[in-house]
Target: Protease modulator HflC
Amino acid sequence: MRKTTYLLPVFVVAIVVLLSSIFVVDEREKALVLQFGQIRAVEEEPGLAFKIPLIQEVVRYDDRILSLDTETIEVTPSDDRRLVVDAFARYRIADVVQFRQAVGVGGIRVAEDRLSGILNAQIREVLGADQVTSDRILSEDRRDLMIRIRDSAREEAQSLGLDVVDVRLKQTNLPAQNLEATFARMRAEREREAADEIARGNEAAQRVRALADRTVVETLSEADREANVIRGEADAERNNIFARAYGADPEFFAFYRSLQAYEQSLRGGNSTMVMTPDSQFFEYFKSETAPEGTFAGNVAAGQLPPVDLPDAQSAQETEAEVTAPEDTVPDAVIEPAPEATDPGADTVDQDATTPDADDTAPADN
Model:
């Protein structure tokens, strides 16, 4: 009983010491065995490992690829256009011994602060180098620039025991104070292009409109010319017919002109006339006193003189004469009948406007 009383505490202590001397290394971690702050062992393989209890301690570090987002920084390429760059990096702890010696007890937090400084410096150096413009940063050459940043950062991060796997530029924008000016310049450029397009459209419209106006003027001029030619030919034919009719029977022509004068004078409400009793205007209304043998006497007797109309051969000759230009028509052909055969046209106007006091007659409405 007494022996069991002594062995039980010894057994418990032995078990506690054994358990405290054993630790497990995960496949996602690397471990360092430290004794009074000095590195005594490095455990990189997963499994069980041993340490001296109460004297040695175990420090574990993540062996996976870690991510680091850098702060937004401004860079100035060679074309002096400032850009705001936001980047991130992928890294892992390659050498835990060197990492422990570089960062000490700070661990991952201190390592990321120092790695962020390295990345910012390399980003400014690469993007601000000669022949690196903002257009190149925003073009397909951006991948080559990121590779250069990664390689430069990897060389400096080796002193921390870190391996920089990749570096990417998430965003590359203009500063906020430059965005409005850039947008204004883009709007001005678009407005200039729009004004150029409108000007070219107006020029084309003016060209088409001028061509259409020219075509209209030419068409109207040609139509007017043809109309004048046809009108001249018709006038020549009419004058020729009048001349033949006048030559066939001058008395009938005088009678016809008198009828036209009656129609024009007694049209509408213009039926009041003041003239002398011996006026020749109404000469053909006095047919009962007309002598025999005259046209008026023949009309009163119901005998109309025959009219000599042009035959087919004369019509062809007349048509040949009419086809001549209007300027070549003789003045004698287009003259009206003699003034003596136009009964009282001017006398009507003079008598109607200035009647004599002795010759006035009452008006018949």
Q: What stands out?
A: The chain is about 50% helix and 15% strand. The chain has three domains: 2-62, 66-174, 231-353. Confidence is low (pLDDT under 50) at residues 307-365. The CA atoms of residues 264 and 270 lie 9 Å apart.
